[in-house]
């Protein structure tokens, strides 16, 4: 017997559907020393006192590029050449759903000054995270500073030496953030592999996290990646501040828990069907964006993705992509 919805049934409720939508475009402006310009929100505006990337709202019928050029001229008195998109962040606030489209400013002319009474500051990139910002601007900082790909290691089925050689090849290929993950290995063997892999990652200048084992993370001074089941079982941060902490998430509740835990970033998926999750359709990019807007964490999209998907991921608010097969070199 098939079941169909009654024509008298109430419509499905989409969270946040009644909120007004606001489209905002902002620019990453650098000076000759590589510092990035931030503007402080003035009194009387939402989120007054916080620092943000300069920009403003679209006018009706105006393109993002035209809006950004106009806003930067009106707010700062500069003329700009707009470069590549950086990230497009969907963010929900109590009274609105905002989409922040951020572009790199390829070149600019004039003397930047706060023509609307706003304070300005030129910030070295490594200090951007120390400035208090609106939630939508925080993922922008991560997009500027943190890797766009996150490798999750597979099982060392071909042997430890081959596994380490493939890890080193992935690092040579440009991977700069790695999650060491291999379930079911003998503790001694895994500890040895973690020690050698962490050394290889450090030599390459890559971030490294270990899956699920806080003891190993602390012992080797590396980050910890929490599976979802661990995330909800913990009452507080399981490793010292200063060591990276991340979590795997599958829904909004997971994301909110990761943010409350103080995670530095998260994974969210799966985006597309994958061999490792047979029968799972995937949340798709629209599903990703709807969950992404509920937190301000940097979030990697995972599930059937590779380096070619980074641009699409950034267009939906992701830090980039995480993958096993898509980033692990073939033998």
Break the fold down into its secondary structure elements and pairings:
Blueprint: E1 20-28, E2 36-40, E3 51-52, E4 55-57, H1 64-76, E5 79-93, E6 96-109, E7 120-123, H2 138-145, E8 149-152, H3 160-172, E9 177-180, H4 187-204, E10 207-211, H5 214-220, E11 223-226, H6 228-233, E12 245-249, H7 252-261, E13 265-269, H8 284-292, E14 299-302, H9 310-315, E15 320-323
Parallel strand pairs: 1-6, 8-9, 8-15, 9-10, 10-11, 11-12, 12-13, 13-14, 14-15
Antiparallel strand pairs: 1-4, 2-3, 2-7, 5-6
Helix pairs in contact: 3-4
What are the defining features of this structure?
Nucleoside Triphosphate Pyrophosphohydrolase; eight-stranded parallel beta barrel; 331 residues; disordered N terminus; TIM Barrel
Structural overview:
This protein has 331 residues and is an alpha/beta fold. It folds into 2 domains: 20-137, Nucleoside Triphosphate Pyrophosphohydrolase (Alpha-Beta Complex), CATH 3.90.79; 149-323, TIM Barrel. It is 27% helix and 26% strand. It has 9 helices and 15 strands. The strands form 3 sheets. It has an 8-stranded parallel barrel with strand order 8-9-10-11-12-13-14-15, surrounded by 4 helices. A 4-stranded mixed beta sheet has the order 4-1-6-5, with helices on both faces. Helix 8 (284-292) links the parallel strand 13 (265-269) and strand 14. Helix 3 runs parallel beside helix 4. The chain is elongated and about 65 Å long. The termini are far apart.
């Amino acid at each position: 017997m098939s079941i169909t919805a009654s024509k008298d049934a109430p419509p499905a409720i989409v969270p946040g559907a009644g909120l007004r939508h606001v489209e905002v475009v902002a620019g990453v402006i650098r000076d000759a020393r590589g510092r990035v310009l931030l503007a402080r929100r003035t009194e009387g505006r939402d989120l007054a006192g916080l620092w943000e990337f300069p920009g403003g709202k679209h006018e009706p019928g105006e393109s993002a590029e035209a809006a950004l050029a106009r806003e930067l001229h009106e707010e700062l008195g500069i003329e700009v050449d707009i470069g590549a998109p950086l990230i497009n962040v969907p963010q929900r606030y109590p009274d609105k759903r905002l989409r922040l489209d951020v572009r790199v400013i390829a070149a600019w002319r004039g003397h930047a000054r706060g023509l609307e009474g706003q304070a300005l500051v030129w910030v070295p990139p490594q200090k951007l995270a120390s400035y208090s910002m609106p939630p939508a601007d925080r993922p922008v900082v991560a997009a500027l500073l943190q890797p766009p790909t996150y490798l999750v290691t597979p099982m060392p089925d071909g042997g430890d030496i081959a596994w380490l050689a493939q890890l080193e090849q992935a690092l040579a290929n440009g991977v700069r953030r790695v999650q060491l993950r291999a379930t079911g290995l003998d503790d001694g063997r895994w500890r040895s592999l973690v020690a050698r892999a962490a050394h290889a990652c450090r030599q390459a200048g890559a971030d490294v996290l270990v899956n699920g084992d806080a003891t190993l993370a602390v012992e080797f001074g590396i980050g910890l990646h929490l599976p979802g089941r661990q995330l909800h079982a913990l009452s507080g941060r399981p490793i010292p501040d200063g060591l990276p902490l991340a979590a795997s998430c599958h829904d909004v509740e997971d994301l909110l828990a990761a943010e409350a835990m103080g995670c530095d970033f998260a994974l969210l998926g799966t985006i597309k069907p994958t061999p490792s999750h047979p029968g799972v359709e995937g949340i798709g990019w629209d599903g990703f964006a709807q969950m992404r807007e509920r937190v301000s964490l940097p979030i990697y999209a995972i599930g059937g993705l590779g380096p070619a998907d980074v641009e699409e991921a950034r267009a939906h608010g992701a830090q980039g992509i995480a993958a096993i097969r898509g980033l692990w070199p073939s033998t």
